[in-house]
Amino acid sequence: MSSLLVPGSAEHPRLASLLNRARGNSPPTLAIIHPCDVHALHAADIVTRLGIARPMLVGVRDRIARAAQTAQVDLDLFEIIEPAISSCDNPAADARAAAVLGVSLARDGIVKALMKGSLHTDELMSEVVRGDTGLRTERRISHAFLFDAPRYPKLIAIADCVVNIAPNLRVKRDILLNGIDLLRNALGIAVPKVGIVAAVETLNPQILATVDAVALTAEAKTGVFGKSVVDGPFGFDNAISAEAARIKGINSQVAGNADLLIVPDLNAGNILYKSFVYMGGADCAGLVLGARVPIVMTSRAESLLARVASVALAVLAAA
Fold first, then answer.
1. Rounded mean pLDDT of 255-278?
2. Largest CB tally within 10 Å, which of 86, 162, 198, 246?
């Protein structure tokens, strides 16, 4: 079955290529937590049929079955794992129980990735970050989007647009490391090029993002991020346009060729992400990184292609 069956993949060939790369004869198991709406079940149906992943539906069977009927999805395609305790009249309690169970499946190595269904992000993430039973590692948990933008020559990642609100230098270091690992492991980019983005491309002590950019660039030269090229600060135009950088006298291997952009904070990243999608014609895949397994954390407003591509990215990252 061709990836072109996913709506939007013809207009975003790099994401379509990502789907095809993730397909295999032995697809890994993906736990979809509380998949009680049509969006989650349509994604589960397509990633199953494309051979990208083997979804395990984690939640109350009756709730899932009602959603499957609305979505016209055949539940016989899936294994359903129910929490030991469920409620007929308390969806929030059922969602939390599904989150606890899904995280435990990941901790035990039964599933290789998680995907958020119709529960709230904080309901799942509160279990992921729990100290005793969660999925934390020594890294700070962060998020990265991978965009197929029509006017950029390749896939480009942006971090962090979702999780860390106002990251300090230490947190930005982990965001950068998580992003570099994603590019290496999922996309096979041996030497990722990373641009640290700020409002301006020069050091200004009153703009903390430029101070952090200089510090991260200096750290990169010591080899702490492995084989990579990290540069900044960049104004956004200089990071994505070699011509804009040339006009401003910026000589950098990253300008116009970045694989990953690190944004100053969640406000900047979230606005940039939505601008890419709603005004720039881009579509994307996104993952929560830095946990024991990759986590697909899509919103209800995201396209079906974004959901399926996010699963494909999780599969490649987990491998």
1. 96
2. 198
